[in-house]
Amino acid sequence: MRTFKGMTDEMRLQIIQEYLDGSSKYSLKKKYKLTDPNRINEWMCNFGIENPHPQPIPLSLMPKKKESQEIEDLKKQIKQLKKDLAFSEMKADAFDTMITLAEKQLQIPIRKKTGAKQ
């Protein structure tokens, strides 16, 4: 059994157990007069205990550039797809007009008749 600043391993393990049972670090800090509640994580690491309550990554540390770059790329892709769609619609309209003019000038039906054969 070793001691560090007046606290034995058994005492540290008891604090870790309370933390694992659901107590917050800050309530344990008050109860046991700890200077730093994050010391519990260090003790868990030293004893080889996995932390079931990992600390969330603060928003300030989250990578924003990658997400914003993806959003910008998607916006560019949407813009290009809208241009392609408009071009395809104009092309279809031009073909339709061309067929209509050819039917009038040549006086022959070019479009396929709809409906079932009899």
Describe the structure.
With 118 residues, the protein is mainly alpha-helical. The protein folds into two domains: 3-55, no CATH class; 63-106. It has helices spanning 9-20, 25-32, 39-47, 64-106; strands spanning 3-4, 7-8. A two-stranded antiparallel ribbon has the order 1-2. The longest helix has 43 residues, at 64-106. The protein is rod-shaped and about 105 Å long. The protein starts with a strand and ends in a 12-residue tail after the last helix. The mean pLDDT is 82.
Overall pLDDT score = 82
Overall, the morphology is rod-shaped
Question: Count the strands?
Answer: 2
Report strand %.
under 5%
Tally of discrete structural domains = 2
Summarize the model shown.
The chain is 61% helix and 3% strand. With 118 residues, it is mostly helical. Strands 1-2 form a two-stranded antiparallel ribbon.
Summary keywords:
2 domains; 61% helix; 118 residues; two-stranded antiparallel sheet; mainly alpha
Task: Give me the secondary-structure topology.
Layout: E1 3-4, E2 7-8, H1 9-20, H2 25-32, H3 39-47, H4 64-106
Antiparallel strand pairs: 1-2
